[in-house]
């Protein structure tokens, strides 16, 4: 296997005796290997991300580890580096943390996850990224994000109106007005001083969040959760992690459970007590129809080309159910806040005051990339948030490279329907981009 030589070269950078290496998982942008060493079982992760970005992440990982957060231990290289760079990839070796996988339908597991999230945000305070790193920053950009998404939904509404025979567009149009109005109310809510004050506070303290909080990277050990790996971070309000995680849970339930949502926030408050203005910012973010937007965005820009029309339609109906049943919860802030604010602090120990660790990267620079089995390709970008058409209005670039080796689905819907997916100029540009990428590959 050509990549095997790369793995051997990377593992040679560590002061370990390796007895066995086995492939655990391979995806477009990440690959994992289980590594048996004289110091225990470890996981080697390869990520298609450049070294300055990885430096930003591993420095945060080390900072959390030194502060006492329950997170896997990073293994330094012989040179003291926190990771290994073999352009265009970065490699990180960390201990294989064992524990019980967490379940989205187990209340105790959800409680452990929310309390861990609270501790994660508290432990992140004081982090200062290395000057050589490339940070991700969302804090202070919510207004632009909301505004762009509202404009995009309005554009999709016009597109859907011109395709009344398309089942997805017909369903979208039935609910578009309600969703857009909810989005506009959320935008108005964050124009107050609460959002600005919390933004300034987080910027001053160096707080960061995970941006995609998920149970897949946590395990239960005893009566608390621990983190197996830290894949990415971004400088943003803790509310972002809370909103994403709660929306993820409710999507799995296919309906908004107000009692469960209140309990989740109550458990978070036990570990990181927020005042009322901060909770109002979260309420605004919960009110914005992020789930609805994301589902519609994927359809009209064909970001899931292998999905059938039925799958898109099922996903849309699911999020509509969640968004519409959420209204009662969002409209009863005072009652829910009274319950949340009654949470008693949990004695989870005090995080240590530590200095920002000095973090370096071990770099392997072969004369020819082919010598290590490396194929020269353009590094992939992270995430997909996109605000505007010009570079100045972008929050993050659209990631299209994951579709490079996939065959686009036909324009028509399921066999026998004869329906075509509505097209847009944006979607056309993205299809051309994927074709160019496929020719390059």
Q: Alpha-carbon distance between the termini? A: 19 Å
Strand order of the largest sheet: 1-2-3-5-4-9
> Secondary-structure element order, as H and E?
HEEEHEEEHHHHEEHHHHHHHEH
List unreliable stretches of 5+ residues.
368-418, 434-441
Helix count equals 14
CATH architecture of the largest domain: Alpha-Beta Complex
How many E strands?
A: 9
How much helicity do the residues have? Answer: 40-55%
Q: Output the CATH class name of the largest domain.
A: Alpha Beta
Q: How many discrete domains?
A: 3
Quick check: average pLDDT? 84
- Classify the secondary structure makeup into a structural class: alpha+beta
Shape: globular
Which fold does the CATH topology of the largest domain refer to?
Aminoglycoside 3'-phosphotransferase, Chain: A, domain 2
Give Rg in angstroms.
Answer: 23 Å
Structural write-up:
This protein has 441 residues and is an alpha+beta fold. It has 3 domains: 114 residues, Phosphorylase Kinase, domain 1 (2-Layer Sandwich); 241 residues, Alpha-Beta Complex (Aminoglycoside 3'-phosphotransferase, Chain: A, domain 2); 50 residues, no CATH class. It contains 14 helices and 9 strands. A 6-stranded mixed sheet has the order 1-2-3-5-4-9, with helices on both faces. A 3-stranded antiparallel sheet has the order 6-7-8. Strand 1 and strand 2 form a beta hairpin. Helix 4 packs across helix 10, helix 5 packs antiparallel against helix 9 and helix 10 packs antiparallel against helix 11. The two termini are 19 Å apart. The C terminus is likely disordered.
